[in-house]
C-alpha cells in the first residue's frame, strides 16, 4: 500500500507545488531596479544617520581646524592665512579639501565641530575614472572665505542683532 | 521533402540532367542546414532567455532585462561573450577526447532533429524507423557526456559523466516502453505515420485513446526529463555536489555546446511528446481544405504554415511546463532517481503496454465514449488546477500583476 500511497502523494504534491509556482507569475516582482527605475529617490529610503560623503557648510565653518586634527587618516586639509589686503589682517581660509576616497566615514571629524559645519550627507554615488575627482574642494581655488565668527556671549537671546552690531563695528573700524 | 524536391526538379530543367537522388540529398542537406541556423540555434538561445525570465518571475524577480527590449537579446550577448572567451584545455586532460566530446554531444542532439516533423511536408527525412532512430541517435549524447567527464581528468567531471550515463541508460527503458505503446496503436515507427493516425481535436489524440495512454504519456515525459538532465533529474551537474558535473573543466564555446544541447533538447522532448501523444501538426480538416483551396502560392504555403504553428504552439506549452517543473521541484537523490525509474516508471510502462495491447484486442475500433471521458477528465484536472492557482493568488494577499513584462 505504501507503493500506491507514494504515487498518489507524488502526484498531488507536484500538482500543488506547481500551482504555487504558477501563482507567483501573477505577483509583482520585488526587485528594485537601482539605479534605473526607482519608485522613490534612493536618498529618501536611507536612514537619517547614513554616513555618506562629508560636506562642509562653509557659511558656518569657523576654521578652528578641529576636524583636521581629529581625522585619524589625515584626509582633511585646511589652510588659512592672514588676509594682507584687509586692514584688520583677519584670518581667511584658502583651502578646505576633503579626500573622500581616503575617508573611512568614522565620523570623528563631525564630533568636535563647534558649529556642526562638517557633517555627513546621504550621497554616496561618485564612480569616477580619476580618483582625484573624489577630493572635494570646499574653498574654490584662488578664492578665500572668511570664517564664521561666533557671536559674543553677552545677549545670548539676540544673536541676529549681535551679528549686525559686529558687522557695523567692523565697518566703522574700516 | 521528397515532394518539394520533385517540384523543384519539374520546375528547374538543369536539375533533370542530375540523378534524382542527388537532388533529394542536396535539398535535405540544405533544409537541415537552414533548420540548424534558422530554427534550432535561435530557439535554443531564446529558450535560455525565456527560462531565465520565467524563473525570475516565479521567484518574484525581474530577470535579464537590459540587452534589447525586455532583455530579449541576452542570448546573443551571452553567445558573443562565450566566443570571445579563452578556449582552455587543462594540462592533465586528454586533449583529443576533451575536444571531441562537445561535438559528439552536439551531433547527437542535432541528428535527432532529422526525424522531427514541422508540418505534413516539412521534415528533413521521414524515416520508416523514425522514432527508433531518434532513441538510438540520442544515445550518442551519452558517449559525448561520458567522454567529457573522463577526458577532463577531474573527479567531479567523471562523477557527473558517470551519473549522467547511468541516468540516461536507465531511463531509456521506461521511455522506450512508453513509445512502444504508441507504436502498438499506429503499427508504424515513422513519426509522420504516428501523427497521421491522430486527429486535430483532443479526443482524437493518442493521449486520450484509452485509459492507459495518459500513464504512458506521463511516463515518457518524466523519462525525457531525466534523459535531458533537466531538473529535478539534474544530478549529473548538481552544483552543490559536483561543481558543474561533466562541464566543469570546459570554458568558452565548448561549454556553450553542452548548454546548447541542453536547451535544444527541451524542444526535442516537447516535439516528441507533441508528435506521439498530442496530435502533432494535425489541423481540423475543414481548415486544411479551406487553406488548400485558396489557390496560388497560398494554397501551398498556408496549410504548412498553419500546421507548423499548431505543432510549435503545442511544443511550446510542453517547453513551458518543463521550465516550470524546473523551478518547482527540488533535485532528487541518486537512489531516489533509480527507485523512480525501476520501481515506478518501468512497471508503469509494462502496465501501459500490456493494457493497451489488451485494449486493442478487446476494442479494435476504440471506444469513443472513453475518449470523450478522458478528455473531460483532463479538462476537469486543468480547471481544478486553475482553481488552485486562483486560491494561491488569493491566499498570498498580494496585488495581482498580470503583465508579463516589468
Describe this structure in words.
The complex is a heterodimer of chains A (174) and B (406). With 174 residues, chain A is an alpha+beta fold. Chain A has four helices and five strands, in the order ααβαββββα. Chain A has helices at residues 2-23, 42-45, 66-70, 159-173; strands at residues 54-56, 76-82, 91-99, 118-120, 135-137. Chain B has 406 residues and is mainly α. In chain B, 69% of the residues lie in helices and 0% in strands. Chain B has 14 helices and no strands. In chain B, helix 2 packs across helix 3 (74-84) and helix 2 crosses helix 10. Chains A and B meet through helix 1 of A and helix 2 and helix 14 of B.
Keywords for this structure?
heterodimer, A: 174 residues, alpha+beta, 3-stranded antiparallel β-sheet, two-stranded antiparallel ribbon, 5 strands, 14% strand, rod-shaped, disordered C terminus, B: mainly alpha
Write the layout of secondary structure elements.
The complex is a heterodimer of chains A (174) and B (406).
Chain A: H1 2-23, H2 42-45, E1 54-56, H3 66-70, E2 76-82, E3 91-99, E4 118-120, E5 135-137, H4 159-173
Antiparallel strand pairs in A: 1-4, 2-3, 3-5
Chain B: H1 2-11, H2 20-58, H3 74-84, H4 95-112, H5 130-151, H6 155-186, H7 191-196, H8 213-227, H9 239-242, H10 252-277, H11 285-292, H12 297-326, H13 334-362, H14 368-396
Helix pairs in contact in B: 1-2, 2-3, 2-10, 2-12, 3-10, 4-5, 4-10, 5-6, 6-8, 6-13, 8-10, 8-13, 10-12, 11-12
